[in-house]
Amino acid sequence: MELTVALIQCNPILGKLDVNCEMISSAIQSTEADIIVFPELCTTGYLFTSKDILLPLALDKESEIIKNFHDQAREKNSIVIIGFAERDNNVMYNSAVLLSPEKEKPIIYRKTHLFYKEFLCFEQGNTGFFVVEEKEKNVRIGIMICYDWRFPESARTLALQGADIIVCPSNLVTDVWHIAMPCRALENKVYMAVANRYGTEKNKEEELVFKGESALWGYNGTIIAKAEKNGDAIIKGIINPSKTRDKAFNSINDIFKDRRAEMYLQ
Ligand code: ACM
Prior knowledge:
This protein is of the alpha/beta class. The chain is 20% helix and 30% strand. α1 (17-30) runs parallel beside α3 (64-76). The mean pLDDT is 97. Acetamide is lined by residues 40, 115, 146-147, 171-173.
């Protein structure tokens, strides 16, 4: 079964929860796709350095805003993944929520590897990596967030658990990930979907430039769709999840069966 994946490239405004959530809603409404992926921290923007400022903007997974996004996902029959600042009482996580039409509750992944000043606001994620099985669309989705990519164990763990596609909400500030992502796709035989933001954020004296170029790679590491460095974009590509499940690449070799886990450092 073929599925359409859409990556939403956008430029969330720092601290403007209402404006950003409005943007997310209208992108869900206007996008026809089976899987829709938004960037990291899409509800709030990125460059927070104070818990006190971020906490009132962070969302509980049971919040009305998340419920509304979930209702929209159900209406569109789309699986929607959104990076957001999550609040669990007074603790915050850099999280992604997966909203599935066939699931009653939102599913939350909390970023495992925090980057740079994220340590000032967020706790390290405690969900670990896991795969979401979608029965109606016959797809298994793994989630990682941005800097998780620097650790090949992230993608490997998801692939070993059976992911067909790894979605990666991102706020990437370098260009080197374009070298790594197709490798993660190839060595795990999975699709890789990176929804990255673009634009500039300034907080006090510090400025960050986000690199856009959201992209979808096929399981052989070939590029399927790619956005420009700047500008709002909805880029789409077709995937065939069942094609990732046979890890053999000739009559003898299979990239998972050939692994020698006992020879690797644990
Ligand atoms: C990043 O993890 N936002 C680079």
